[in-house]
Amino acid sequence: MSDVKFLSLPLTKESMKDLKVGDMVKLSGDMLVFRDAGHKRLYQSILDGKQAFEYKGETIYFMGPCPAREGEAIGSAGPTTSCRMDKYTPYMLDHGLSAQIGKGKRDKDCIQAFKRNGCVYFAAIGGAGAIYSKSIVKAEVLYFEDLGTEAVRRISVKDFPVVVAIDSFGNDIYEGK
Prior knowledge:
It contains five helices and seven strands, in the order βαβαβαβαβαββ. The chain has helices at residues 13-17, 36-47, 89-94, 108-117, 129-133; strands at 5-8, 24-34, 59-62, 99-102, 120-123, 136-143, 152-166. It has a five-stranded mixed beta barrel with strand order 2-3-4-5-7. β3, α3 and β4 (99-102) form a beta-alpha-beta unit. The radius of gyration is 15 Å and the shape is globular.
């Protein structure tokens, strides 16, 4: 098991090259939050030639937050299953997305896209939403507010704990490589 690596967002290609499958990382900075409906709507806007917003250089966390309690930035903030976003991932990585955070395996096209673009996929622990919410210091809806919990948000995090599940060389923790 490796030591914890502390990284600031946005990630650089150089910092991602230094990450290996199984590395424990704590992220600090800003990231986007997406789920299925937000991805679908962004992707459709791209296909329509009217891209809703820029995601280049961003890290996307697949999460649907619970409402915040008084005095908190956000409610429970655990990861959602990433494979539902696999159909959008290669395109987004090929067009500048830096990293994704979620839970579960990714398909072979996604793994190749992470490798081709020198990007990483981080795993967050399912069922640990209350713990993750403590690392989130700010949350705001940016786009598609009508989607409710699936609206696109920007969150600011401090020492957000993740594990490298697919590194920039295409090694995959779920395949034991």
